[in-house]
Amino acid sequence: MFAEDSLLPLSGLQHLAFCERQWALIHIEQQWIENRWTAEGRLLHEKADEGPDETRQGVRIVRGLPIRSLRLGISGKADVVEFPIAASGPPLPVEYKRGRPKPEHWDEIQLCAQGLCLEEMLSVAIPRGALFYGESRRRFDVLFDVPLREETEELARRMHHLYVEQHTPAPRLTPRCKQCSLHEICEPEMLERRGSASTFFRRSLQANLRARETE
Fold this sequence. Notes:
Structural class: alpha/beta
Number of strands: 7
Order of helices and strands: EHHHEEEEHEEHHH
Shape: globular
Strand content: 15-25%
Oligomer: single chain
Radius of gyration: 22 Å
């Protein structure tokens, strides 16, 4: 179990799943650059969080609910949690995202972490949640199955390990780098160029040595 003052941001799990270096730049080095996509996402979250709590069709809708898990060492805020009151049933966490569903399951990991927090806080099993995407204006159900739970918990352990180490991984150029708001800070292409130059000089040196050996 973690102490309250050692909890890390739940949102970091999505950053970590996307890229360990991105997570370290944000959560260790405290660096951040806003772009159009992050601004749109922030505004969507603010709209979801700051609306009034209400009751609709037998469901109590609570917005901006603080959540935490001492077992996983994470804390954050759920955009929306729906509590059935007209019929029995578990709470349903709903996470708001800009854009559309992704082929990767980073959003599902963040949502599952919210479900795990609520399970611990409320002592109730929460089998699923929902993701609402601003571009499609649609909601998608997410099952908190065993593989998703295990991956979420492993990421939480990894996040705490990296935080204790206080080490920012070196950049690694991948196709997803262009989607990252920290691209200008990270400069993965620069490392790629340095690596190419290093390889060039090493090969040149080896060729010169071989040429001398044959003289």
